[in-house]
Amino acid sequence: MAALTGVAALALFLPHSRRQSLLTGGATLGAALFLGALEWRDRPIVIIATLANIIILTVLARYLGRTRSEATTGVAEPGSQRNASSQIGNVHVEVRTLPMLASGEMSADFCDLRSTSFGARLLVVDFMGKDTATQEKASSLLYQWARAAGEAPGLGDLARRLDSLLAQEDLFAKALLVDVADDGTTTLLCCGHPPPLVVEDCAAHPLSLVSLLPPLGLFHLVHEDIPIYATTILLTPGRRLLLHTDGASDTPDADGAFYPLAARLGSLDGLAPGECLDRMAAELRQHMQERARDEALLLLIECTPPSAASVAPLHSAPREEVAMATPWTEVGQAAS
């Protein structure tokens, strides 16, 4: 009978959703009531104490589930998409989302930015599905990312952890994992996601990736221990990196034409990052019109001179030493 308290306590240590915590607690309480009815005459005090403990633990697990969900704060989160501007050290990140969502709506495209002792660490996700169950898994993914981002020294380990989480749920998601150090050294892992665009000298071109990985949750379909290689690029002043989800490049207009993302990005290179994305977002809205469309997420990253940088009060956590290349060379490295 008393062992049922331990079952309810398990919810405190697992990244369950609040609904799962209530279901676990309710099932445990039901079992305790059934057994308590059989043993009431022999151990009434033990039964009362057990029931009280199960109720307390269930309420506590539900509260922690809400706290964990709120703890995954970043540039944007599932269900709370917004435009944002963030500065971590010398790293400046601008974000625009399309369409802007009404209160309570859920988005399949989201991102999370964190300050760690490895530098600025960023996750961009294009999740499959918008139902409540998928939303809960997306929140769980963000919670695991938030915990691991401050611990794992390499993006390879981070990718494996997130892949394992989604594989257990038979889900998958296209994703980009990015580390940006204050000196502009930027390391990327592309997991089934469109490659970022490098912007310099009023021109934009796709980043040449060393290795394109499957979406998170599908690594096992390629190899049980798939090798992971990261792409490294140096963001010097005047060089920017645009990360985007499918909706920005793959949504046709009424005539079937696609938005010229690279060409427009290059022509707007002289503008400040926020103004550049505001222009692109306005053009994309006009391009999409009222037709059925995918969501779109735009992120523009640049490294500002140290004298112009300010530190945003985000989470703190660790920094990956990467092999340096010449300022305009993209190189590959094995990701731990």
UniProtKB/TrEMBL annotation:
<feature type="domain" description="PPM-type phosphatase">
    <location>
        <begin position="90"/>
        <end position="303"/>
    </location>
</feature>
<protein>
    <submittedName>
        <fullName>Serine/threonine-protein phosphatase</fullName>
    </submittedName>
</protein>
<keyword id="KW-0472">Membrane</keyword>
<keyword id="KW-0378">Hydrolase</keyword>
<dbReference type="Pfam" id="PF07228">
    <property type="entry name" value="SpoIIE"/>
</dbReference>
<keyword id="KW-0812">Transmembrane</keyword>
<feature type="transmembrane region" description="Helical">
    <location>
        <begin position="43"/>
        <end position="64"/>
    </location>
</feature>
<keyword id="KW-1133">Transmembrane helix</keyword>
<dbReference type="InterPro" id="IPR001932">
    <property type="entry name" value="PPM-type_phosphatase-like_dom"/>
</dbReference>
<dbReference type="InterPro" id="IPR052016">
    <property type="entry name" value="Bact_Sigma-Reg"/>
</dbReference>
<dbReference type="InterPro" id="IPR036457">
    <property type="entry name" value="PPM-type-like_dom_sf"/>
</dbReference>
